[in-house]
Amino acid sequence: MEILNHENLYQRVIEEIVLEAKQRVWIVTANLKDMYIKAWRGYKPILDEFNRMANQGVSFRVVHADKMSTSFTKTLSEYPVLQKNLEIQICPRSHWKMIIVEGKAAYFGSANFTGAGLGVKNENIRNLEIGALCTSKDKTDKEQIAQLEVLFDNFWMGEHCIHCERRKYCASPIA
Q1: Euclidean distance between CA atoms 144 and 151, whole angstroms
Q2: I want to staple 72 with a disulfide (CB 3.0 to 4.6 A). Which of 68, 85, 87, 94 is the partner?
Q3: Residue 94 and residue 28 in contact, taking contact as beta carbons nearer than 8 Å
Q4: What is the pLDDT of residues 19-28, one digit of tens each?
Q5: Per the domain annotation, does 175 fall within a domain?
Q6: 27-71, pLDDT tens digit by residue?
Q7: Residue whose C-alpha is closest to residue 100's, from 169, 40, 155, 174
Q8: Are 87 and 119 in contact (CB under 8 A)?
Q9: Is residue 47 assigned to a domain?
Q10: Domain containing residue 138: CATH number
Q11: Which of 156, 115, 132 is nearest to 32 (CA)?
Q12: Element containing residue 108 per DSSP (H, E)
């Protein structure tokens, strides 16, 4: 396991793990915003890369706590292929932050899937974050990735939804 902070989160998690996915990316975040990443010249929405990846067969699952930001929704509307390969669940109790890529790597920590959390926002205004990155190169890390996948999958299937006492605040209960 590698401990990351705001100085290396973007490079290690986004550039080296998420954008290299070939099959699936699972994301859990409290906030889902129109995050930007480095481009050949300047910056572009990460959804632009997700759309390219979706065209190559990558699927995405996202859990977040509230409705998507207006800018995220607007950008997403420009990518019909991505929309078909992007499953989204909203849970008002979701406050965890985690990204799992194909059972090969997992990040968990404090950073939301936002520009200030994991994106390329100016280092003098971005959030101070910390987290851990596990990769399948290490046996212990493989076990931790598997545990995180089980947690995500159980949540995705509605395990927490059935007995949730915040259900009345949920726009679309999972189960």
Answers
A1: 11
A2: 68
A3: yes
A4: 999 999 999 9
A5: no
A6: 999 888 889 999 988 999 999 999 999 999 999 999 988 888 899
A7: 155
A8: no
A9: yes
A10: 3.30.870.10
A11: 115
A12: strand 105-109
